[in-house]
């Protein structure tokens, strides 16, 4: 079967001015990929009629599926509707079922209807209305020649809603799709070039398969793809995945679409363990990541963000002498923080961070990016020193990830 | 002066598969905008030679500046270099100054050189090498006809580094640029459609100026633009800005490119006040946001993440009776949390959050998204009830922002 080609068209001056990051395009691409449709191009264009018309025409020539976001809101700078009327040669019409959606949506939030809201029910006459339960602008569907066009509002929650409710189901129906096979190995704690060194011979040996290296600040993902038309090679493909996995074992924290905090959460939950954190370097980020996981209250008891020396002593029982002798940024202090918070919350496990996130606070002996991290699992403990970079936000992120990983390896008794 | 048109070309299968979000494009667009160069189009294409050649040719026709990211790394799936050789009709060459950069970079990190690293010094013969101090792949510059081409690696930190060090300065020099005038009003706590209601008449009255509404989950930004060629209208433009500002006063937390946590931080620092936080609903996110601000240790003393009832009582002194009578998610509890943490850290100000972030934990009386937030400024306090939505991560974000804003308004005695 020949691959179905899709394009994403993102309309919005705010995207071109760099004020908004195009998370919608990534989300849509991922969803399409999951049902075997490959996105060949993503184009971001301004709220300008001519640009929209030109981009739609180009996409129609190249792709069988075009998904377009943005430009359907209530503000005066949205001109997409008019452009659609011209492109598809249809009139604007008041659509009563959309007006009902808008009324229901606003009633539920006890917001009264205004003129801008009413105008959202006036839409280009399309082949199918995608009713929006998360906002006031509907999605629109058109079929022209061999291309399916979907127009969605620009708000991320509404894009997700309409993709899940309508777009994916319609496409699966149109094309009778089966998913392509992919495998994911998600690593942390090893840079991309070292990974390549470790598995270079395997890449050579199994060169018929595509393996993508996807560096994220949290680590490097390895994604293997077995195309829909290569079913007969499945056994060799699985061999390839298994060989890479075997080679990189200790760096792999999951083979699923999940983050380290989720993987660690499952380990804790599976073993009935509880966790607390003591944060200086990470300032709350560790707690934030851990509590991003639904159901984390089952194992996460809480944390202490101790940004001052006084609070390190008072809340965590770090000794004044330790602070004076070794400083707040030291192996000794971070170990006392971990013990202190474990004791304070009576938790089975603990993570502690201290360091110099920057840009200020450095000394001759202690440069920006220096960080100590400790983990405790019952009465076992590990401590590790890191030298991160100059960027404060990145340093906090890397510290938090390193803390989660240190505890994961301690619990699983890896290296 | 006619606007200089730019295009951004992002190369990478990981962007088209939706695995990586295109933050580079947003960053580059914003930087170009700041020196008066308008991005007309952003295109994301796969790591495929033909697609790259076609996209470069198209961009060259339409734009005077083309900035291209991705495809210059050490992994086998990067084929950009070969494509550049074909497009610009130049050979691959070993470039000794780049090899020195790579060696210096790796030495500094005490990483030994491998074959992949060596290959990074083999580059298409370009008009200018942009030396990279943050990574091993250099940037490349070509001038062809009237178009300036810049090729940057795909790692966000390296893109920022090369944009700041080379690209912006070169463009400013080529085009002798002066910045265009923009004004920003950053609001929070009011939805986009209400904003339009409040200033609809002004939008009509000053319709010659462009005002963009930029909804972010943290609030709505209003961005006014006075084009380079409209200098004679500056007085009327300033009137427009002042009228809008006057109308929306209490929702505006800054007129600069800064976040609420930064604006609040400046207020605290200016008044010599200290802050602590007690987090249940937000799980550490408040502390994280506050400590994202460089120098926040001057006013932020720390926080308690109290995810369990026991920790609310033990650390913050919330009364058992309060928890039994009103529940952990209640006005009474959040006020005791705020008082408790203020007392624990001896801080001038405090913020506390409690609620049901979801998806679990709801009861008949307390649905997912219910949240109570309290702020204290010395002995004054405010408490506010919110009903957020179904998304856990969004709920935490909205709760954290609402907490910062509640304290900001309390300190400034707004409404």
From TrEMBL, chains A, B:
It comes from Caldithrix abyssi DSM 13497. Residues 7-174 form the MoaB/Mog domain. Signal peptide: none annotated. SMART domains: MoCF_biosynth. Transmembrane segments: none annotated. InterPro entries: CinA (IPR050101), CinA-like_C (IPR036653), CinA_C (IPR008136), CinA_KH (IPR041424), Competence-induced_CinA (IPR008135), MoaB/Mog-like_dom_sf (IPR036425), MoaB/Mog_dom (IPR001453). Belongs to the CinA family. NCBIfam families: cinA_nterm, molyb_syn, PncC_domain, PRK00549.1. The lineage of its organism: Bacteria, Pseudomonadati, Calditrichota, Calditrichia, Calditrichales. This is CinA-like protein. It comes from the Bacteria.
């Amino acid at each position: 079967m020949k691959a179905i080609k899709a394009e994403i068209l993102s309309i919005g001056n705010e995207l071109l001015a760099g004020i908004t990051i195009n998370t919608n395009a990534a989300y849509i691409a991922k969803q399409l990929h999951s049902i075997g449709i490959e996105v060949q191009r993503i184009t971001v264009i301004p709220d300008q009629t001519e640009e929209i018309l030109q981009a739609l025409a180009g996409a129609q020539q190249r792709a069988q599926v075009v998904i377009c976001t943005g430009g359907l809101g209530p503000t005066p700078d949205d001109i997409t509707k008019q452009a659609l009327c011209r492109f598809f040669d249809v009139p604007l019409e008041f659509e009563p079922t959309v007006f009902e959606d808008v009324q229901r949506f606003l009633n539920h939030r006890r917001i009264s209807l205004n003129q801008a809201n009413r105008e959202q029910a006036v839409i280009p006459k399309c082949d199918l209305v995608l009713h929006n339960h998360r906002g006031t602008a509907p999605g629109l569907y058109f079929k022209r020649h061999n291309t399916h066009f979907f127009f969605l509002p620009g708000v991320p929650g509404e894009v997700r809603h309409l993709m899940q409710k309508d777009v994916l189901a319609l496409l699966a129906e149109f094309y009778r799709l089966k998913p392509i096979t992919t495998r994911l190995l998600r690593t942390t704690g090893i840079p991309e070039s070292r990974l390549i060194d470790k598995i270079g011979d395997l890449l050579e040996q199994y060169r018929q398969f595509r393996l993508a290296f996807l560096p994220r600040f949290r680590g490097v993902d390895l994604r293997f793809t077995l195309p829909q038309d290569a079913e007969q090679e499945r056994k060799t493909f699985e061999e390839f995945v298994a060989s890479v996995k075997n080679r990189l074992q200790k760096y792999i924290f999951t083979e699923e679409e999940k983050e380290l905090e989720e993987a660690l959460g499952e380990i804790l939950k599976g073993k009935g363990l509880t966790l607390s954190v003591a944060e200086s370097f990470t300032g709350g980020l560790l707690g934030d990541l851990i509590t991003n996981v639904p159901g984390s209250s089952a194992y996460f008891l809480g944390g202490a963000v101790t940004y001052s020396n006084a609070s390190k002593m008072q809340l965590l029982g770090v000794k004044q002498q330790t602070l004076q002798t070794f400083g707040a940024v030291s192996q000794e202090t971070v170990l006392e923080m971990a013990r202190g918070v474990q004791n304070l919350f009576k938790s089975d496990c603990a993570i502690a961070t201290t360091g110099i996130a920057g840009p200020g606070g450095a000394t001759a002996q202690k440069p920006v990016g220096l960080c100590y991290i400790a983990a405790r699992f019952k009465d076992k403990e590990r401590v590790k020193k890191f030298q991160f970079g100059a960027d404060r936000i990145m340093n906090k992120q890397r510290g938090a990830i390193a803390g989660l990983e240190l505890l994961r390896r301690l619990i699983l008794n890896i290296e």
